[in-house]
Amino acid sequence: MPEYKAAPHTMILENRKSLNLSGVTDVDSFDEREIVLYTRLGELTITGKDLHINAVSIETGNMSVEGDIWSLQYGDRDKQSPLTLLGKLFR
Questions:
Q1: CA 84, CA 45: separation in Å to the nearest integer?
Q2: Other CB atoms within 10 Å distance of the CB of residue 7
Q3: Would 14 disulfide with which of 18, 21, 47, 90, CB 3.0-4.6 Å?
Q4: Inter-residue long-range contacts of 28-36, CB under 8 Å, 24+ positions, other chains counted
């Protein structure tokens, strides 16, 4: 199992309404029902209803999401996103 020495990836979910993440490297896509992003530990898909990204900083890797959060699903650990236009804007 590889060791990760970069800043940690953490997730704090409060009452299924507020989600704070660290270790975010890129945001691939988002709408009111689904947010697809990449973390230092792989792809993460957030699904729910009325999802809103309150704050995101690719430089620090922090992100804040609010809404009715239904699921958090990790994808392939090794999958890396090509840098998207949104990711370029937040660098």
A1: 16
A2: 12
A3: 18
A4: 28/81, 28/84, 28/86, 32/67, 35/65
At 70, which amino acid appears? W
Contact status, residue 19 vs residue 46, Cβ threshold 8 Å:
yes
DSSP-assigned beta bridge partners for residue 5? none
Q: How many CB atoms lie within 10 A of CB 75?
A: 12
Tens of each residue's pLDDT in the chain, 91 residues? 455 455 688 999 999 999 999 999 999 999 999 999 999 889 999 999 999 999 999 789 999 999 999 999 998 776 655 555 555 555 4
How far is the C-alpha of 16 from the C-alpha of 6, rounded, in Å?
28
CA distance 49 to 56: 19
